[in-house]
């Protein structure tokens, strides 16, 4: 009979250890679940941040593409204006050259007339 009370005490000690181990296991499981929940929330927050950044970059890219198209359109218009100005300059240069030729011809004719007039005066004397 003396062996039984010692065995009962051992069983009680083991049961107490088991209950303590179960309590710690439940506590660890609760902490793990809480940590998992926080990790999931952090992941969701990071994914939301990433999506916002992606959307901002897409908007910025769309804006840059739109601005590039505007600039390209302006460049094309400017090139057409330059070409038109070059054509007008070519026409103006031709006109100036023609006017210079006519002025030279007119000056040459006037000088020839003056020479002829001087010759007639010289012959008449």
Detail the topology: elements first, then pairings:
Elements: H1 3-124
Could you explain how this protein is built, in words?
By secondary structure, this protein is mostly helical. The protein has one domain (1-91). Helix content is 98%, strand content 0%. It has 1 helix and no strands. The chain has one helix spanning 3-124. The protein starts with a helix and ends with a helix. The model has no long low-confidence stretch (mean pLDDT 93).
Shape annotation? rod-shaped
Mean pLDDT: 93
H/I helix tally: 1
Summing up helix and strand content along with how strands pair, one would put the structural category as mainly alpha
Total strands: 0
Low-confidence stretches: none
Q: N-to-C terminal Cα separation, in Å?
A: 181 Å
Helicity level:
over 70%
Main beta sheet: strand number and arrangement? none
Rounded to an integer in angstroms, the radius of gyration calculated over CA atoms is: 53 Å
